[in-house]
Amino acid sequence: MEFATVNKGKVGIAFIGVGDISELHAHAIRKCDHARLIGIWNYKWVDVSAGGHVIDVLERSSKYACEVYEELDGLLGDERVHAVYILTPLDTHYEYAQKVIHAGKHVLVEKPVGRTVEEIIQLENLAVSKGVLCVPGHNYIYEPQIKRMHDMIVNGSIGKLVQLSIYYNIQHGPEVTKNLPGIIRQIMTHHAYICLYLTGEPPRTLSAMKASIDNGKVENENVAMAMMQMASGAMSLLQASFANDDHSAEPWSFYIKVLGTKGSARYSYNDFVHNEKHTIHSHTYQSFPYTIENLTEHFVTECILMQRQPLSTLQDAATCVKILDAMENSINRGAHINL
């Protein structure tokens, strides 16, 4: 799509799904000079988010200053809509993304893109055949500090990569985790695509563990960790926990550290904090909303209007699923997995 074909210089966007994350995406679109939110559709008029909040679609549309589609076909047939965000639970991503692509519209799919590698590859092939974009919502890597880390690794300024560590420690109680698939599938997709983006290579071996600690009657894991050796030999540690916060002097709420033979770099959520509860987080970690804004800016301006590539592709999304599958395989077998 060329810029001149977009009505009034704005890429029209619609949402499928209006959970908590839609608030950040709606704000991001308002901040983007070249985008506007046309409308939203949800399969229920009144729903409950993963965080346990009651969602009224009409209230959402009023808040977002956009229309509500009574039927999904109305959204898919709206010529004002150039791109659609899939913001629904994982098990519906493939179905809705297929419908959007068949309608000839670009699509951004929240992570994880699909349940299986096969689903993601099929979406990629379908998007290519229809001449539209299908982009994973891998928002963290659109943060400038993480992009700077990537550049330092690529240009060799830190020497050879030795270690990459990614930590996540933000408490989610059982009232929230009961609605989630477990921390591996819910959170560690972020770890996987960040690792791929920063190292530029896939892992060759992996070993993982998980636990459920102080999680009430919820059986799904709320703590997990994986150690990977990358193709170059560098080591990557991926850790995530819903069981605890980290309020220590050097907190690992969300924390990345890169160590090379000639240099190092770090990134922390806690460098930018507003002391106010945000959705299910005890604090407002300011970096997270900015990653959503940067993702929309790149998707609209760079990908749709300038026809450039996203920072993370569906091939990366497929590799992320392979990593998560390997983690669960390692845990179930108590074994070291070769990828």
From TrEMBL:
InterPro entries: Gfo/Idh/MocA-like_OxRdtase_N, Gfo/Idh/MocA_Oxidoreductases, GFO_IDH_MocA-like_dom, NAD(P)-bd_dom_sf. It holds the Pfam family GFO_IDH_MocA. Residues 12-138 form the Gfo/Idh/MocA-like oxidoreductase N-terminal domain. Residues 147-265 form the GFO/IDH/MocA-like oxidoreductase domain. One of its GO terms (molecular function) is nucleotide binding. Belongs to the Gfo/Idh/MocA family. This is Gfo/Idh/MocA-like oxidoreductase N-terminal domain-containing protein. It comes from Mucochytrium quahogii.
